[in-house]
Amino acid sequence: MSTPEITVLYFAAASTATGLTVERVPLPPDGLPLPALTDVLVSRHPQTALAKVLAGSQWSVDAEMVDEPEGVVLKGGEEVAVICPVSGG
Amino acid sequence: MSVGGEWPAASVEARLDTEDGICVLTYHKLDTQAIIASVTDDKAGATAVFIGTTRDSFKGRTVTRLDYQAYSKVAIKTMADIIRQARQQTSRSEHHVEGYVSSIIKCAVHHRLGTVPVGESSIVIAVSSPHRKESFVACEYILEEVKRKAQIWKREFYEGEREGDAEWKENVTTSKSA
Fold first, then answer.
1. Is A11 on the interface with B (CB under 8 A)?
2. Structural domain tally of chain B?
3. Which residues of chain B make contact with A88, given a CB cutoff of 8 A?
4. Domain extents for chain A?
5. For a Cys-Cys bond, which of A83, B12, B30, B108 suits A58, CB 3.0-4.6 Å?
6. In CATH, what number is assigned to the domain containing residue B110?
C-alpha cells in the first residue's frame, strides 16, 4: 500500500542549489525511468540552479555510476545520487 | 572527528585495503610520513610521493580555505580501481616475470575531507617500485585519474567574499583548478 520512494543524495553544486544533502522522493506506483527523474527533481526545486546542475551531472544508483540512464527504471528503495563534475585533488 | 557539521551524511571517512595498496578518505590532517611508510618494502628502490596542498591564491583572488566532500562509498571504490589500473599498466615492463607481476609494489592514496586551510595537504599519494620510472609514472597517473574520476568535490573560499558565493570547482572544465 505504501508509495515507492527513493533516496536522493545531493553533493556540491546540487546541494548548494537545493539546500539539501538528502531527500526522500516518492515514485509513481509503476516506477520511474531514470531520465524522468530530472523533471521530478526540478519540479520539487523550482526557481533554483538545480536544472542547470542536473544538465551537467551524471547519476549513480545504489553506489554504481550509470553509463546509460535510458536503460534504468527506478522501482523504489534505491539510493540515487547526483554526481556533479568532480573536483578532487 | 572534527567536522564542521555541514558535511553531507554520505561524506564519511572510509578506508579500503586491497592487494594494490591503500585508499583512505579522512577528515583528519594527512600524515605524509606515515603514508610513505605504508608503501615501504625491501624490494623497493624508489618511492614517488605527490602532495597536493591548498594554495593561497586563484587567478588573483586570495583563497582562505578549501572545503572537500565526497560520496565516500563510491569514491573509495573509484580510488581502488585507479590504483589497480596503475599497477596493471606497469605489469609489462622490460623486467620479464612470469604471470601477473606489477613493477609497482604498493600504492597509497589518501584524500582529506572537510576544511583544508591554506598550506595543508588535501591529497597525498605514495608509490613504491623497484626502479624510479614506474613509481613516477604511476604516481602521476593516480593523481590525474583521481582528479578526473573520484566522486570528490571542492569548494574554494575567497577573502572578502560572501561564503555563499564560494565556488564549487570542476576539474574537467577548469583545467587549472588544483
1. yes
2. 1
3. 68, 70, 75, 111, 123, 146-147, 150, 152-154, 171
4. 5-83
5. A83
6. 3.90.1170.40
Tell me the shortest Cα–Cα distance from A43 to chain B, in angstroms. 22
pLDDT of residue B102: 81
pLDDT at B92: 55
Chain B: give the shortest CA distance to residue A28, in Å. Answer: 26
Does B154 appear as a known binding residue? yes
Relative to beta strand B21-26, strand B106-112 is: parallel
Q: A37 φ, ψ to 5°?
A: -65, -30
Class for the domain spanning A5-83: alpha beta
pLDDT of residue B96: 53
* Partners of residue B173 in chain A, C-beta under 8 Å: 85
Sequence-separated (6 or more) residues with CB below 8 Å from residue B53 = B119, B120, B121, B122
A69 vs B1: which has the higher pLDDT = A69
Domain that holds residue B132: 14-162
Residue B171 lies in a domain: no
- B-chain CB neighbours of A24 within 8 Å are none
Give the residues of chain B that fall short of pLDDT 50: 1-4, 93, 174-178
* Residue B170, domain member (yes or no): no
**What pLDDT score does B1 carry?**
39
Distance CA B143, CA B2 (A): 26
Q: Do B123 and A89 touch (CB under 8 A)?
A: yes
Q: Confirm whether residue B155 is marked as ligand binding.
A: yes
Distance from CA of A60 to the nearest CA of B (A): 9
Q: Is residue B91 part of a domain?
A: yes
- Alpha-carbon span B70 to B68, nearest angstrom: 7
Reported ipTM: 0.96
